[in-house]
Specification:
Distance between the termini: 113 Å
Number of strands: 81
Oligomer: single chain
Helix content: under 10%
Strand content: 35-45%
Structural class: mainly beta
Length: about 750
């Protein structure tokens, strides 16, 4: 307003003549004669000379009402701090030191600090009244007045903040204030204090006594704000002894375009219930955290750059809070962000990247909300939750980290929702050591390792996520991991869909596991999970592969349309399959081989291209309690060389070849219903010696039982009837084993098979 008015008028005299002024002796008040609403607005702006910075006052002409120290035009009522002895005859408004100027100043006074070095010695500058202290910059660093843009009032900035542009191109102040004895430079205990354009340094030129590592309220500090609402603009803070700037005592300062750097401890420490606002500032190269919030403090940090700390970029601890929005936090030696000790900050819309360790660390019962942040390219994990940490992560993008995307360990908890997690080197999410987070509605993809890993007694609730295109497993559970995995979509992985290994457990319900390059589900090395109500389909190899002493239970799953087997059970695995649908696989529905075991109850095995159930190589499953093996394109059940097991109480029907084919195996068939086969009910060949007892054979196309190839099965009390081909009836006799090589053919007639 003031700037536009003067530029429009062209000069101070023109502004006076256009808008009027009243001459009150030595003081002329601008802007008292306009008539319209617009004129009144300009009048108010002209009256508020002390509300504007020196750059905006440049547009004023060099009138008698204005003085000009160091080439900067200011109000003539300001005090000037020269930094050197004041010559005789100078105005009483000139002072050698800041202490002298502050002591002489009344409430509301402007103090201008000339370019140069100003020492406060061992006496801190104590500000307990409303003052404006402004450093003067070299005239060559000041832009042409015609190129200036009017300052946006803070009230308007708060109502409608512009987060699209951040101006951090500072012109370093030429006015430098320092202390040499480890004492504070400035102590603020008043509202209305304004400090602009100063470089404030706390230096030590002696060997400090070792008092231990004094932190927080006990640490040395360059600027100590102990009360009130003050304003710092375009200032630079540093400390060789401790904290560059400390905010305590419930104070509420405002920092804009300031620098906090090169400090022995923190750049900015906010604690003791303080609040405040920090905008467009830069934090760099402090030995501890660049920014630390603790002890219930709740500041607002906006659009800052926080980088290259030797410790954390931002640390929030001891029940600290705070709202951090639109910041860039990067390239710090420790975690870019650390939240601990019941702290509860809000991080929203920040970029957290390229840290030498982890992006965000939440530990020691830390809480907090992290929303819409970009967490990327950190040397460790994107987010680490440990030691009772329980944050809420939502709508973040977590990618390209060199370890895990999210690592939950050491009794970590938390809520992980609606995040995009991709292209991390290890797991997208890794859970271990009794941690128990809630993970829902995320997209975990394109990882070089697993999508989600649960290990070492980790738990967790993993629900309604999309997990896809990961190089190893979509989900891996191992070494005692025991998660609840529910209603997820696990698909198009380059490796296995779900892998449970090394005594892993877990409950998997209502997931869709499909189109993975390897098996949909792999169980091995003592795994013992529960799969219930899942759809496992269209895998490029097997649907389910159980091996190496694994157990587990599969209930009411749909296992279908896989390129190889629906289920493979090998190497002493002994899982239980109950009421599953195993259908339309391009090879067998079940394969039990290589000393595999297993228990099959009440499954529906149908429309498979090869045998519905294939048993071989010392496989010994228990197949009972009304499994339905039907509509296969080959045999219903095939027991080949070395196969055995117990097959009882099942229905085997409408298969394109034999209902049961025994080719060198030695199973026990008991109380099965074998019917409507396109060839034999049971074909025994390859020198088999199976026991076939109390089965019901009927309506098979060729015959009920055919024995050849040197086989010698035991047939006992089978019921054979309603066949499609007649044969001579056999006289009743007591059951006898068939003699090797007899080639007995039994066709359909009512009665019992005796020999």
């Amino acid at each position: 307003g003031l700037l536009h008015t003067l530029l429009e008028a062209g000069s101070l005299d023109a502004a006076k003549s256009k808008y009027g002024h009243v001459d009150l002796g030595d003081d002329a008040i601008l802007g008292t004669g306009g008539k319209g609403a617009e004129d009144k607005k300009k009048q108010r702006n002209l009256l508020a000379l002390d509300k504007w910075s020196s750059q905006e006052l440049l547009c004023l002409q060099n009138e008698r009402k204005i003085i000009r120290p160091d080439g900067i035009l200011i109000d003539r009522t300001a005090f000037v701090v020269t930094g050197h002895p004041v010559p005789d005859g100078w105005s009483s408004t000139h002072f050698e030191t800041l202490q002298e100027a502050v002591a002489a100043a009344d409430d509301g006074q402007i103090l201008v600090v000339q370019a140069g070095r100003h020492s406060v010695g061992s006496r801190p500058l104590f500000l307990d009244k409303r003052l404006r202290i402004e450093g003067v910059k070299d005239r060559n660093a000041v832009p042409d007045p015609s190129a200036l843009v009017p300052r946006i009032p803070d009230v308007q900035r708060l109502k409608d903040p512009d987060t699209t542009q951040v101006d951090l191109e500072y012109v370093r102040s030429e006015a430098r204030i320092f202390s040499d004895y480890g004492e504070p430079v400035i102590v603020v205990n008043a509202s209305g204090v304004q400090v602009l354009g100063l470089t404030i340094s706390q230096r030590i030129n002696f060997r400090m006594k070792d008092h231990g590592d004094l932190q927080g309220l006990l640490a040395r500090t360059a600027v100590d704000i102990i009360g009130g609402s003050s304003v710092f603009r375009e200032c630079s803070f540093s400390s060789d002894a401790g904290v560059a700037c400390r905010v305590q005592g419930g104070s509420s300062p405002f920092f804009s375009k300031c620098e906090f750097e090169f400090s022995a401890h923190q750049g900015l420490w906010v604690g003791d219930g303080s609040t405040g606002r920090v905008e467009d500032c830069r934090f760099a190269e402090c030995r501890l955290a660049n920014l630390q919030i603790e002890s219930g403090a709740d500041p607002v940090i906006l659009r800052c750059k926080i980088f290259q700390s030797y410790g954390c970029g931002v640390r929030v601890t001891d029940k600290g809070k705070g709202l951090l929005m639109g910041n860039q936090i990067y390239s710090n030696k420790s975690s870019n962000v650390c939240v601990d000790d019941e702290a509860e900050p809000i991080f929203r819309g920040n970029a957290v990247y390229e840290g030498s360790a982890d992006g965000i660390m939440v530990m020691s019962n830390g809480l907090g909300t992290f929303e819409d942040n970009d967490i990327r390219n950190n040397d460790g994990s994107g987010v680490v939750i440990m030691s009772g940490g329980e944050p809420t992560l939502s709508m973040n993008t977590i990618h390209r980290n060199r370890a895990h995307g999210i690592f939950v360990t050491g009794d970590g908890h938390g809520f992980i929702r609606r995040n995009e997690i991709f292209q991390n080197v290890l797991a997208g999410i890794y859970i271990d050591a009794e941690s128990n987070p809630s993970i829902s509605h995320n997209r975990v993809s394109n990882g070089l390792g697993t999508g989600i890993t649960v290990a070492d007694d980790g738990e967790g609730r993993i629900e309604d996520n999309d997990i896809f295109l990961n190089k190893l497993c979509g989900i891996e559970v191992r070494t005692g991991g025991n998660p609840l995995v529910q209603a997820n979509r696990i698909y198009e992985g380059i490796g296995v869909g779900v892998k449970v290994t090394n005594d892993g457990r877990g409950t998997f319900r209502e997931n869709q596991i499909y189109r993975n390059s390897h098996a949909g589900v792999v169980l091995e090395n003592g795994a013992n999970p529960i799969f219930e109500g899942n759809a496992i389909f269209e895998g490029e190899t097997d649907g389910v592969n159980c091996s190496s002493y694994s157990t587990g239970e599969f209930v009411k799953n749909k296992i279908m349309k896989n390129t190889l087997m629906g289920v493979v059970i090998t190497r002493h695995a002994n899982p239980k399959f109950v009421q599953n649908e195993v259908s339309a696989n391009r090879r067998s529905g079940f394969q039990v081989a290589d000393s595999g075991r297993g228990q099959l109850e009440g499954n529906d095995v149908c429309f498979n291209v090869e045998a519905g159930i294939r048993i071989e190589s010392d496989g010994k499953p228990l197949i009972e309690k009304d499994n339905r093996v039907h509509d296969g394109y080959e045999d219903g059940i095939l027991v080949s060389w070395g196969g055995a097991g117990v097959i009882r109480g099942n229905r085997i029907y409408q298969n394109k070849k034999s209902g049961i084919r025994i080719d060198g195996g030695n199973p026990l068939l008991r109380k099965n219903m074998i019917y409507l086969g396109c060839l034999h009910g049971c074909l025994v060949t390859g020198k088999s010696s199976a026991r076939i007892e109390r089965n019901d054979f009927f309506q098979n196309q060729v015959c009920a039982i055919r024995v050849d190839g040197g086989s010698a099965p035991v047939l006992k009390k089978n019921l054979i009837h309603d066949g499609k081909v007649d044969c001579p009836s056999l006289p009743p006799a007591s059951p006898q084993p068939l003699r090797r090589g007899m080639g007995l053919w039994l066709a359909a007639q009512e009665g019992e098979c005796t020999s």
